[in-house]
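fyi for ur records
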Amino acid sequence: MKILDYISPQAIEKIRQEIQLARENEVFFVGKTNENLIIEKVTVVARGNELSVPLVKEHASRCDVVIHNHPSGFLSPSQNDIAIAHDLSNFGVASYIVNNEVDDIYVVVEPFSKHDKVQIDVEKIVKTLSPGGAVSEKLKGYEHRPQQLEMISRVAHAFNDQKIAVVEAGTGVGKSLAYLIPAIYWATQNNERCVVSTNTINLQEQLVKKDIPFLKKALGINFNSVLVKGRGNYICLRKLQGFITGQETLFEDEYKEEMKLIINWVKITKDGSKADLNFIPNSTVWENVCSESDSCLHSKCEFFKECFITKARRSAVQAQILVVNHHLLFSDLAVRAIGVEVAVLPKYHHIIFDEAHNIEDIATDYFGSGITRTGIARIIRRMHNQAGDKRIGYLNTLVRQLKIETKQYRIKEFDEIITQVENELIPRCDAIIQFSDDVMAQVSEIILAYDKGYQNEVAIRINERIRKEPQWKNAIIPQIKNFIQLLSRFNFGLSLIIEKVETVNIKLKKEILYTLVDLHTQRNRIKAIIDVIEQIILKNDQANVRWIEVQKRTTTKPIVRLKIAPLDITERMNEFVYENFKTIIMTSATMTISGQRGFGEFGYLIKQVGLNLVEKARLITAKIPASFDYKKQVIVGIPLDVPAPDSTQFSLKLPDAIFEALEISGGRAFVLFTSYGLLNKVFNELQPRLLKMGIVSLKQGQQNRHQLLEEFKRDKTSVLFGTDSFWQGVDVEGDALESVIITKLPFKVPSEPIVEARVEAIERRGGNAFMEYSVPQAVIKFKQGFGRLIRKKTDRGSVFVFDKRIIEKFYGKIFIHSLPEVNVTTGPLNLVLEKVKTFFNDHP
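which gave:
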């Protein structure tokens, strides 16, 4: 074998250099081949040990080559080499062995062709969901759904042709099976990993606990799937050990009992994730012992073999199907966007976005950044905090550790370091907290001046109006600059301390080394704080939106958040998503809007998420209606004598109108609002009246979302008053929910910073921001609210819309025409109520 027949000269030289840097020990590389299957580029992925294989798999894709050297020069593969090569070949990855000089080669597995993708059999896949098919025969309560067959066919073709498929599929189509089955066939036949991303925990649990286990049995295909959770969900054994050995300076006394429970739990837990705990840990406790990417030592950690996050990642590497939420996927994409190859998830090739109507908001958030007053304080207090007469935090831990060493070995340098930490760094921690509080108090004072008096949270964009404020120019900006200087001086001093400890001419104990790792981490986080504050407060450009949020609290200081986000995500989505992944499926029940120009009814979504930048031939769209008979199952009532939302009479008349609507359904309703202010007013007025009727009123915020929903399902006469999060992602089947009441059309508040900035950008280019942006956003949310009612063929009920603009304004027909074909009744409230009563009587 001639090595140049397999590896290019440039790649040979790179391999040789890396082996020399590793002092001629074993090194694993992943090579990328050209069209002639010759390696042109190599990347170091691991140094030789028994844990290398999972790391190699994580980096290698189909048609890549794994290369490693045999320092002995004897190139025949060992049994272990053959086992590794066989394992990798199952993923379409070849294996080579070279000597240290890289002039000799042993090809264990030949490279795989780049053109040998195995097309999935669309007809066969469609048959699995057809009557008599593998799935239909084993699915309890199977229903033949032509819409589901249409969707599975379109998704399968998208995988075969490497397309981006945007599919609106109404409730009841059976979306999850329609995209999972083609994904499973493709992933297993081509050894290419697929990510299924959702917005809600409910859908994740359905996929992981129900749909995927069922398909494993029904299809008879051997494949692995994993629910991937963020790193912060897992305990870090190194940090936990740090607490055990240094608890005197890491935690307040009040948390020690909770820590004992966690220590005992670690001995028995199988996955080490917070969800496996039988109690909800205090956030301060968990934050100090959970896994964090910037403080992880990876293979250098003494707990690497037992590490729960490492085990979870190994499981993910072995899986063909990864189930994640949108937040985790976009955090992975955001990390990859800055050039980090080893990101949050193992390498994947295809993405399915379910609940895809949320993509724009989540991508905007993850391609931006921010910092809070409490976030700054949290980082500083992890280094030093005075808890009564006790000092805790990493700096105090370091001092304690160095004092023990000094007492034992009399190390002069440690005495000097202890003095510097106690006399300089620790006092600066207190000064930073105080300075941060002072600056944020001034910032919140300016922002709250814009409060209209009824909002719990105020968000103000940093624009020219704010920048010209005398208090902003003369007080805030100088104070921010002083604060940045204070943080920078602290970080410089911290760097010197770390360097001094590391250069002391003795072998440091591992406890000290671990403390240094944690101090390194906090130093880097402070640097990130400085960068974010500078970017938000001191810089200015039209590509980003900058704003400050202040949330009032009755007993403590206001919450202050500084935020920045891209004005337009389209270029980033194209660069980091569409250009990097082979097949992308986007699906939701609410993606289309009636009357759109360009790209038809999908026009708004396509333009907002950058699909208009994709080559047209690669993009396919499909609108697949729900399998429900909405004309028989739903009546929509729109009273025209309830005052318009901009009338002062609206909030006075609304409670009585809602009460009469609730009398018809006997409760069993969601009442959906667009603001907490109106929600609280209506709830407070109706709760005692409903209670007299035996109807329990539940309000968003009383309990967490899941608990509220479970209570609503249990008590089948209850009414749930909710805002934003209850408009979507909530499933209540059957007679527990028989009415959805929409109080106002869900237009976003025009003063929301991102909304305001995007409206201005549309108007600058001569567009109509209201019709291009505000209305489409409201229509999508309106469709989500409407979709809460009918979840299966036996459901029935009413939807009330107490916003007559939907009839009287020119844009109202867009809302109505974007719904399924449904009976709409309008007129005076008493007439609408009578028609709804008749509907309920006729459809018991």
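The longest strand covers residues 39-47. thats all i got for now
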